[in-house]
Each structure stands twice: as structure tokens, then as C-alpha cells.
């Protein structure tokens, strides 16, 4: 199940347009984190067209709401580098190939004016970015959302990716990471920062892998023998 989450949306028209796009591609759950406008305004309702039910059923929550999801996917137009791990992205197409809707998934979009903050990106398991011109990479919020929804629908509605596979749960991943961190504690690093980098890298690897439950337990067994 996929929830669409808008963090501090500023334009009611964009919220309405996103609701319409959600209905176009079979998505139902819209969550607003600390909205800066009225999502039930006339502008929002006009832009939503026949998706007013999504607007009316939208929930207003706090950022802590993200803790309920197995996988959190953040979106950004700002590309990362090997030295900026929280911003190392995949494309919407790659997301669609990997995603498994048997788990609770959140896709979060940032503010129209400034996007997501670094501390919000760090809450995500991985980052999605849409390849655009380097001269003007930032898309309108509703346009970016529609592209991502389309890629998901194209793959999920035609191929039903991963439906016969039991994915690793959030608890499985947390237990696996705990075991990895215990192994890292046994190692000597030249500087404390190098250990922190290893922790971030392993977290990214586990998040992006979309592990099955069997794979997660196999890796846990390996690291347990190293302890």
C-alpha cells in the first residue's frame, strides 16, 4: 500500500492537482504534514476535478507519522554525490522496478518553495529524482508527482512485481542493521567519521536492496557468526 505525503504544502491548487493525478493512477491515501494552506479551498477542489474524495479523506499529521511505514521514499531535484550519501538517488523507473506494494510505503514530496530539508531526507530509506535539464531541474510539484505515479502504475498494474515474494519487514531490517552495527563496533577505524560513514552506507544498502525475508535472515545468520 502506498501513501502520498506532502510536507508543508503551500499551494492548494497543487494539492488538488496531485489528488487528481492520484486518482488517475489508482492511489487513494493522501497525507498532509503541517500544511500551509487550506486543502479544501475552492482552488484545490477545482483542480482535483473528480478526485474530491481524496481531498476530503486526506489526513493532517505530524512528521512522526512516517514511523509507521516499512519504506519511506523521498523526492528531490538536488542530486547527491558519493560524499553526500543522503542525496544518492534512483530514478522513478528504477523505483517502479524495485517497489513491492505488499509493504507500507510512503512517498514524500517537499515544499514548493524549498523542497525537503536534509533532516527530512535523512528519514527516507532512499531518494528518487527525475532526470531533467541541469539548467532548470526543478519541476512543479504536481508535475513531478504525476511522473512518479505514472512510472509506478506502468510497472505495478501490468507486471505485479514481487507479488509472490515475502519482503523483509521494517523490524527485519532494523534487526539486520543492529547486527551489522555490532560488528562495526568490533572494528578499529582511523577516525570516528569513517565509522559513521560505514553506518550510513550500510543503511542505504539495506534500504535500496528491497530484501526478501529469506535474504534478510540469511544475511543475519552470516553476521551472527562474525560476532
Task: Explain what you see.
This protein is α/β, with parallel strands linked by helices and 227 residues long. It folds into two domains: 2-159, Alpha/beta knot, CATH 3.40.1280.10; 170-226, no CATH class. The protein has nine helices and seven strands, in the order βαβααβββαβαβαααα. It has helices at residues 12-24, 42-48, 52-56, 92-98, 118-121, 141-159, 170-185, 192-209, 213-226, and strands at residues 2-7, 29-33, 59-61, 71-75, 89-90, 105-109, 126-128. Strands 3-2-1-6-4-7-5 form a seven-stranded parallel β-sheet. α1 links the parallel β1 (2-7) and β2 (29-33). It is elongated, with a radius of gyration of 19 Å. The chain starts with a strand and ends with a helix.
Brief summary:
By secondary structure, the protein is α/β, with parallel strands linked by helices. The chain is about 45% helix and about 15% strand.
